[in-house]
From TrEMBL:
Record field: catalytic activity: guanosine(18) in tRNA + S-adenosyl-L-methionine = 2'-O-methylguanosine(18) in tRNA + S-adenosyl-L-homocysteine + H(+)
Residue positions binding S-adenosyl-L-methionine: T109, I152, L161
Protein name: tRNA (guanosine(18)-2'-O)-methyltransferase
EC assignment: 2.1.1.34
Family matches, as InterPro entries: Alpha/beta_knot_MTases, SpoU_MeTrfase, TrmH, tRNA_m1G_MTases_N
Originating species: Flavobacterium magnesitis
Entry keyword set: Methyltransferase, RNA-binding, S-adenosyl-L-methionine, Transferase, tRNA processing, tRNA-binding
Stored PANTHER family: RRNA METHYLASE-LIKE, TRNA_RRNA METHYLTRANSFERASE SPOU TYPE DOMAIN-CONTAINING PROTEIN
Length: 221
């Protein structure tokens, strides 16, 4: 449960413009689609994907790190790590089972004999969109467990795109279609309160000192 009194206390520190901007952004946030990147060696690519998630309203980014353990490149992410939730997994199987339990279908973004063009993709089901590297693509485990395959139509000689470019194209297309649909894609009231609290904390300097002072003056019964 969100401590509403604490939320109000923190939001009173923020400007009215900041609070209004939070509400505007949250009105366009969704968990209906989620994005997954697998073992992306070049960390700036993961950071760029995170930035695309933030810009186009995807609230959660899932990162599978079986081979490489790297930190988000904050310069590339441009602050997006403050507004997007990052879920880290140490194995493909753990990530897929977690997402399936949340009700997502597993969609591999890669050319495949049973693939679907982006423009024809059915958005009626919550989907986890998996992206691999330009060089290696997605692992065989993901391809074997995928519920569907999605590709971007291309008409040039080049057969693949950088992961960050592919993610931006797909996320922008699907989220735009989602917002024009009658699907219930928005965050719940509880999820909005949760994000308001998290974003308020991310926006206040010396939050630990302020938080400690608040709870010292307002001890829980």
């Amino acid at each position: 449960m969100i401590d509403i009194d604490y939320l109000n206390f923190l939001e009173n520190i923020l400007t009215d413009n900041r609070k209004e901007r939070f509400l505007e952004v949250l009105a366009n946030r969704t968990k209906y689609f989620t994005v997954v990147v697998e073992d992306v060696f070049q960390m700036h690519n993961t950071s760029a994907v995170m930035r695309s998630c933030e810009v186009f309203g995807i609230q959660e980014l899932n990162v599978i790190e079986q081979r490489y353990g790297k930190r988000i490149d904050k310069e590339i992410a441009m602050g997006a790590q403050k507004w997007v939730d990052i879920n880290q997994f140490d194995s493909v199987s753990n990530c897929i089972s977690t997402l399936k339990n949340k009700g997502y279908q597993i969609i591999a973004t890669t050319p495949h004999e049973n693939d679907c063009l982006l423009e024809d993709f059915d958005i009626s089901k919550p989907s986890a969109l998996f992206f691999g590297t330009e060089r290696d693509g997605l692992s065989s485990e993901i391809l074997e467990k995928a519920d569907g395959f999605l590709k971007i139509p291309m008409v040039g000689f080049t057969e693949s795109l950088n992961i960050s470019v592919s993610a931006a194209i797909i996320i922008q297309d699907l989220t735009n279609r989602l917002r024009r649909s009658n699907i219930n894609w928005k965050l719940s009231d509880d999820e909005i309160l949760e994000k308001r609290l998290a974003w308020a904390k991310n926006s206040i300097k010396d939050i630990k000192r302020i938080e400690a002072r608040y709870f010292e003056e307002n001890p829980k019964v």
